């Protein structure tokens, strides 16, 4: 009498069997759920663009850089690079306002004006790019490129000076360091 189970044996076997079925169903359901989540969350590989896109900060001779173009309002540069302390230089009542971004290697010059106070709607006249600016032209020329590479890419400059660099008619000037490597690029 003391060795008999509290529940009938058949009931106990059914419970174990039912528990096995429930656990198996839960495991299979969980596995299917995980597989379906993984399948739907995987992004399909996109087809490559037929035309290569410009790299970030691509230098465009005579135009500017990909994100900031000559003729844009200075606000475009502020939106991209942040708020600088605006500076200016003047001569005979004509002011040239410029925005200096030392940590980006960019100086944005605005068109000359008689206004002594900077206005973010002033038009961009030129960009002066230096280290650590990492952009390159579509011909692969950037800060640190050699003078020989510039000449191979763009030919002979329209004017050349040890101080002002090599100016090209397409709206770009390359200034070199003492080792004949590009130290700064002016786009105008």
Summary tags:
188 residues, alpha+beta, Pathogenesis-related Protein p14a, 2 domains, 8-stranded antiparallel sheet
Task: Characterize the structure shown.
This protein has helices at residues 9-41, 74-81, 147-154; strands at residues 59-60, 64-65, 86-91, 94-101, 106-110, 124-130, 159-161, 165-168, 172-176, 182-187. It is globular. It starts with 8 loop residues before the first helix and ends with a strand. The strands form 2 sheets. It has an 8-stranded antiparallel sheet, covered by helices on one side. It has a two-stranded antiparallel sheet with strand order 1-2. The chain has 2 domains: 7-46; 59-187, CAP (Pathogenesis-related Protein p14a). 19% of the residues are buried. It is of the alpha+beta class. The model is unreliable at 4-23 and 25-54 (pLDDT under 50).
Sheet with the most strands? 8 strands, antiparallel
Count of folded domains: 2
In CATH terms, the superfamily of the largest domain is CAP
Q: Roughly what is the average pLDDT, rounded to an integer?
A: 81
Structural class of the helices, strands and pairings? Answer: alpha+beta
Which CATH class of the largest domain applies here?
Alpha Beta
Rounded Rg: 33 Å
CATH fold name of the largest domain: Pathogenesis-related Protein p14a
Distance between the termini: 104 Å
Topology:
Layout: H1 9-41, E1 59-60, E2 64-65, H2 74-81, E3 86-91, E4 94-101, E5 106-110, E6 124-130, H3 147-154, E7 159-161, E8 165-168, E9 172-176, E10 182-187
Antiparallel strand pairs: 1-2, 3-4, 4-5, 5-6, 6-10, 7-8, 8-9, 9-10
């Amino acid at each position: 009498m003391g060795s008999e189970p509290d529940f009938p044996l058949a009931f106990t076997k059914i419970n174990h069997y039912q528990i096995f079925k429930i656990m198996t169903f839960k495991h299979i359901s969980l596995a299917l759920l995980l597989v379906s989540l993984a399948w739907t969350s995987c992004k399909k590989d996109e087809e490559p663009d037929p035309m290569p896109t410009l790299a970030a900060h691509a230098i465009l001779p005579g135009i500017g850089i990909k994100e900031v173009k000559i003729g844009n309002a200075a606000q475009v540069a502020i939106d991209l690079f942040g708020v600088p302390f605006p500076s200016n230089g003047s001569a005979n009542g004509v002011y040239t306002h410029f925005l200096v971004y030392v940590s980006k290697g960019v100086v944005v010059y605005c068109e000359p004006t008689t206004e002594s106070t900077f206005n973010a709607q002033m038009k961009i006249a030129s960009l002066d790019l230096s280290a650590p600016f990492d952009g390159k032209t579509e011909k692969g020329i950037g800060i640190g490129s050699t003078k020989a590479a510039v000449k191979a890419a763009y030919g002979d400059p329209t004017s050349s000076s040890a101080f002002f660099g090599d100016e090209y008619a397409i709206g770009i000037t390359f200034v070199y360091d003492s080792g004949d490597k590009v130290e700064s690029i002016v786009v105008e």
